[in-house]
Specification:
With 193 residues, the protein is of the alpha+beta class. It has 4 helices and 13 strands. The chain has a 7-stranded mixed beta barrel with strand order 1-8-7-11-10-9-13. Strands 6-5-12 form a 3-stranded antiparallel sheet, with no helix packed on it. A two-stranded antiparallel ribbon has the order 2-3. A hairpin with a 4-residue loop joins strand 9 and strand 10. 36% of the residues are buried.
Amino acid sequence: MQFQVVGVQAAKVRRVMINERLVPSAMHKTAVPGPARVGVLGLELDEQADLSVHGGLEKAVYAYPIEHYAYWRRARQDAGLGGIDDRLCPGALGENLTLQGLLEAEVWVGDVLQFAHCALRVTQPREPCFKFNASMGFNQASRQMAQTGHCGFYLAVDQTGTVQAGEVATLMPGPRRARISERFQAKLFKHLR
């Protein structure tokens, strides 16, 4: 199965105001021009603010389907945020890779995304947090991510190299035991118990 890289994004940690306190965050990613170097811990230009929940070998790169952006634009408009950054550029959901043609129900833990110059292995879904609410601008964003399953997925780096916007890549099937969508629902069910 082939898919396309719509955007490659990174950010440095900065302090942002959330609930009247300054919190470190690297949520708002911006486009990386040209090929982006990918090391064992992710994109060279990228940082994570809280390494207990983001980053590391199993969460080195975060990928998100561009197909969900229309949903988030509508959700923000429904929350009264119409006219405020309506475009939601790639990276607005905190992802390093914005992909087209690869949804959570089509991706299995252990699948490999084979790019021209690197290989990234699917490890787990992203779980929403309070920073996601702040980034989206409304308090129900995390709940809506949970309800819709529009979570994206984390990737480990199997082969270092480069990745760039516009390139076409291939999904190489792994052991096919659990889809990202199934793993996400299982994690949410566990938290609700």
